[in-house]
Structure formats: structure tokens, C-alpha cells
Design brief:
The protein is α/β, with parallel strands linked by helices. The chain contains 8 helices and 6 strands. Strands 2-1-3-6-4-5 form a 6-stranded mixed β-sheet.
């Protein structure tokens, strides 16, 4: 498929060929959900922890005698029914991460790219960089493509100056073409794809068979 490449001023420059196997796939909502939840689960720290009655500091002695006081019978002050006592079935440190098959992960990313092309929220822009690394220059540049919307820039390489400029903009995320994140890409209201990054995506993801097509063959 052909798509237009825009200049930094928003003018149409030329057309670029996008691989149908990367940008022209049918949208698979289940696979997208699967990939996004995988990323969110892998980001969880799992450090929440509470103490049960065996871990709470305190005496094991009964606070008063069993009979004769007219009060309820109870054990030590570490009992879960008392303030400051142990917690019943509370959280303990655990690992929430789980692995997703590589082919399914890559297919999910290609599906999201296809979705952005179909919804006309992906725009291909000529290559640029921020030589000074200043945020205000990047904000001025992005003004031609809209502002204050959740935006994702897909870079052609590891550009430290551009990343430094983008890191101070709350509504902007940056991704390298070979390290895409399904969550950021899917929820981006606008996706700015650098021209060289588009060519790199054609090569990086192009020519692959999906798990469904391999099963059918």
C-alpha cells in the first residue's frame, strides 16, 4: 500500500510503500488485549506484603485470664480481630509476569500498526532530530501535527537527543521501531512514524507468517 510522507511543516512530499503484511492486516482484538495485558502484568512489581499473626511483633501471652472477667475469650494481641494484629489472607510478594509466544507478540504489534493505518491516526513524517535536545524545539515542531493529545513517535534508531527532548512532554511517548510496546502504541491517539522507521518496519516485520496461517498450511 502507498502512504504519503509529510514534511515537518505538514506538506505532502512523496509516497512510500508500506508492506501489507505489516500495515494491512485485519484487526485482531483478542490478540491486542492479550499483548497489552502481558505487558501490564510484566510491569507489576508484586512487592505488596502484609504480616500474618505469626509475623507480628508481640507477646504470645493471653491478655487476661480465661474465666471470671465477664469478657469474651480471646488469645494474644496478635489476633487478626484486633487493631495491630495479623492480617488474614493478605498479599505476599509474588511474580505476576508471564511469557507470551514471540510470534503472537509480533503479530499483535503488526495488528496494532494496521489498526492505526486503517483509522488514519498514523502519519509518516520525514526524518528529523533535535540537535539541541531541548523540549521546546520538539514541542514547536509537533505543533504542526496537533498537540495535547496522546502521541507516539516511532524512531528509526536510538536517538538520545530526541529522547531527551521528548521525555519532558507528558502526552508524548517514543518507541524504537524494533522495540515497540503494544500498550503505548494502541492507546496513542496519534502515531508519528519517521520515514526511515517505516522502511525499517517493512524489513523487520515483513515476510513473516502468522500462527494462524502456519496452522492452516
Amino acid at each position: 500500500m502507498n502512504r504519503t510522507v509529510y514534511s515537518l511543516e505538514g506538506r505532502e512530499l512523496r509516497n512510500i510503500e508500506l508492506d501489507e503484511a505489516v500495515f494491512g492486516l485485519p484487526v485482531n482484538d483478542d490478540l491486542i488485549w492479550y499483548a497489552i495485558n502481558n505487558e501490564l502484568a510484566n510491569k507489576r512489581l508484586g512487592t505488596a506484603s502484609t504480616k500474618d499473626r505469626g509475623e507480628v511483633h508481640g507477646s504470645n501471652a493471653k491478655p487476661y485470664k480465661q474465666k471470671g472477667t465477664g469478657r469474651a475469650r480471646r488469645g494474644d494481641k496478635k489476633s487478626p480481630v484486633l487493631v495491630g494484629g495479623g492480617v488474614v489472607f493478605g498479599p505476599k510478594p509474588r511474580d505476576f509476569s508471564w511469557s507470551m509466544p514471540k510470534k503472537e507478540k509480533r503479530l499483535a504489534l503488526k495488528t496494532i500498526l494496521s489498526l492505526k493505518v486503517q483509522s488514519e491516526t498514523l502519519k509518516i513524517v520525514e526524518d528529523f532530530s533535535i540537535e539541541s535536545g531541548k523540549t521546546k524545539e520538539l514541542v514547536k515542531l509537533l505543533a504542526n501535527f496537533g498537540q495535547n493529545e496522546r502521541t507516539v513517535i516511532i524512531l528509526k534508531d536510538d536517538d538520545p537527543l530526541l529522547k531527551r527532548a521528548a521525555s519532558n512532554i507528558p502526552w508524548l511517548s517514543y518507541l524504537s521501531y524494533n522495540r515497540l510496546r503494544a500498550h503505548d502504541l494502541f492507546y496513542g491517539r496519534r502515531v508519528i512514524l519517521l520515514e526511515t522507521a517505516a522502511k525499517n518496519l517493512n524489513e523487520f516485520y515483513g515476510g513473516e507468517k502468522s500462527p494462524a496461517s502456519e496452522a492452516a498450511s
